[in-house]
Design goal:
Protein name: S1-like domain-containing RNA-binding protein
CATH topology of the largest domain: OB fold (Dihydrolipoamide Acetyltransferase, E2P)
Number of helices: 4
Low-confidence stretches: none
Helix content: 10-25%
Distance between the termini: 84 Å
Strand content: 35-45%
Number of domains: 4
Shape: elongated
Oligomer: single chain
Organism: Rossellomorea vietnamensis
Number of strands: 18
CATH architecture of the largest domain: Beta Barrel
Mean pLDDT: 92
Order of helices and strands: EEEEEEEEEEHEEEEEHEHHEE
CATH superfamily of the largest domain: Nucleic acid-binding proteins
Length: about 290
Amino acid sequence: MSSLKPGTVEDLYVDHEVPYGFFLTNDIDRVLLHHSEITEEIHEGDTVKVFLYHDKDVRLTATMRIPKVQVGAYGWAEVVDKREDLGVFVNIGLPKDILVSSDDLPKFEELWPNPGDQLFLTLNRDKQDRLYGRLATENIIEQVSRRASAEMMNAKIQGRVYRLLRVGTFFLSEQGYRCFVHMNERKAEPRLGELVEGRVIDVKDDGNLNVSFLPLKQDKMQDDAEVILEYLAVRNGAIPFWDKSQPEEIKDRFNMSKAAFKRALGKLMKEDKVYQEEGWTYLKNK
């Protein structure tokens, strides 16, 4: 069994040169450092710091391009591909992409990361010493996250989703804050690894943040009013809805609560843009 393992950083010395690179050794085993993976001039007898991994032919090989993500070291990696039968592949800076197994991903494929999304992960080795990506656990996130201060209240915040639960969404902000979005504070569930933006609605005693993806009430009222106006335009200025319509009908048609519908409708009437009559709402002609 080789004393050199993939996924680790090693200090090896240059044994000898061959036409396609250099062989490195620790006096027990040798590994090839290809010319394409050399970042500075080296000579026989030099000691070099390299990262070890398996190439596409499953041969242990070395690179002087040291990735942040290693066995025992966590970092962000961009998703570059996904396979329904396998999982997703991420780029950690190696010539070969790393698999994150479907077993480590959400049950529903529509919540899997898309290419361009990013995952916070480390490297593990299977029984054949092949490298694969493993998502950070909640314990790891707690170790790497920062405590937020009360000054973050109402601030806008961005970050990457790292955990999905039925009760809500967890993401790690760009500043390193651990954030939670309750299911009632979002319109739809984001993907794992998706970049999201929200508004801080609570700073917890432990320094974690509660965040909402929903707009402020006045902003939402404006959005809801625009939805109603758009539907009026499609229906030639008349719709069979008014402030006494049934909540279920409003929800099915506009995807908003009756209270939100009435607020938006009241706004439009106050602005003299619409009027109601016998169960219908009409667009005013100006």
